Amino acid sequence: MSTSQAAAGHAALTYRGLGDATPLYAQTDQHGAFALGPLPPGAYELRAQPDRRGAHAGSAPELVVAGEAPIDLHLRSGVALPVSAVQGEDGRLVPLTTAFVTRTDGEPILAAVHRSSYGATRLELGPLEPGTYTVVAGTASGRFGIAQGVIVGAGEGETLLTLGPGARLVLDNRGDDPLAVRVRRGSAIVEALTLDPGQQSTLWTVPGDLTLEVEGGAREVRERRIRVQPGGSATLTLPGN
Hints:
The protein is mainly β. It has no helices and 22 strands.
């Protein structure tokens, strides 16, 4: 792992499965090298904070684990994106517990994920590289908002979302392998998680026309398309045909 051309020695690493709330921790050695695991197959978020002034955190939020493989993580300058949300016409800020940030000016990349049991009325998401993003955020009660075309790095202010009823998804893994699941609305990634064999998970996300990308042990990606109305629900048995 490096910052520009210099090794990021003694950098603090935080990593977790995209469907997990509890993070794990590690640290690079003096040469910037590190090892994670052993980890079960699936999609993970990896973040690094260098141990020196003037360096910025870096991340690899779509790290996929499928056996031993090298990771080359470069730390670059980033910008924090402040996000808040209101519900109704009174303008009162609502605590947010979930947020997904997708970079959309090119191949869609999941750039930041926030999950917390305790809501906050203002989230600082990132650090993010300058670019164009879609932001999805929601509450513990299943209210969600989405903002598209958010420009990061142009001196913009806070992103304010207006919340509405979300959609309830029940995902049931009836297969023999762990499944990495990503839920998209258009190009924006609005949920990502890993399901063990026999595991059922209930989640809330934005309503509308959704695409589920399901990846199993054979590394084959299957797509499922569904439409869920605001306040509605859908149950899907995976991996499906």
